[in-house]
Specification:
Elements (H helix, E strand, L loop, with lengths): L1 H40 L5 H21 L3 E3 L9 H11 L13 H22 L2 E3 L3 H26 L1
Antiparallel strand pairs: 1-2
Helix pairs in contact: 1-3, 2-3, 2-5, 4-5
Length: 163
């Protein structure tokens, strides 16, 4: 339970640091968070593979949304998304085997959770950062609400392979 709470706290603080702080703070926080994760939370070295896969797939999803006009980032790099968003994916990926591991038994709950919380996270993030939705906003939210219930449970399902 202690590891789960540490993992959850690292991610929640990291979400705010990444969204509000921008690239430099996000990168610095992520490096420190990964060190803490490695020392206090990590149970299997194979988890690093899961973190890498979730980060790459999540970042590709965000690039697709950016290139598709679903969401825009004022500080987007060459890939169409900012570094802080990639850092956020890294931090989120660390929760799959810990704070979110209970969802591996309930993929349907993961899908419902993702349909609501995925778009909500972008909504709140856009209020605190230089990100903004394409128009109409409802279309952007629907795209997210359709994509997230596919991606998130797939990542949760993949977690079983690494546990």
């Amino acid at each position: 339970m202690k590891k789960t709470l540490i993992n959850l706290a690292i991610f929640q603080v990291g979400w705010l640091v990444c969204v509000v702080g921008g690239n430099l703070y996000a990168l610095a926080y992520t490096v420190v968070a990964l060190l803490v994760h490695n020392w206090f939370v990590l149970e299997k070295k194979s988890e690093w593979q899961l973190i890498a896969i979730v980060t790459v797939v999540g970042s590709l999803w965000d690039m697709l949304m950016a290139f598709g006009g679903v969401v825009y980032y004022a500080d987007a790099g060459l890939l169409g998304i900012p570094l802080w968003l990639v850092c956020l994916w890294v931090l989120f990926a660390t929760t799959f085997m810990h704070a979110l591991s209970w969802l591996s038994r309930y993929l349907w709950i993961a899908a419902v959770f993702a349909a609501v919380m995925g778009p909500a996270s972008y909504w709140f993030g856009s209020e605190l950062s230089d990100a903004y939705f394409g128009t109409p906003i409802l279309t952007s939210l629907v795209v997210m609400a359709v994509g997230w219930p596919t991606l998130f449970p797939a990542g949760i399902y993949l977690t079983r392979r690494y546990q």
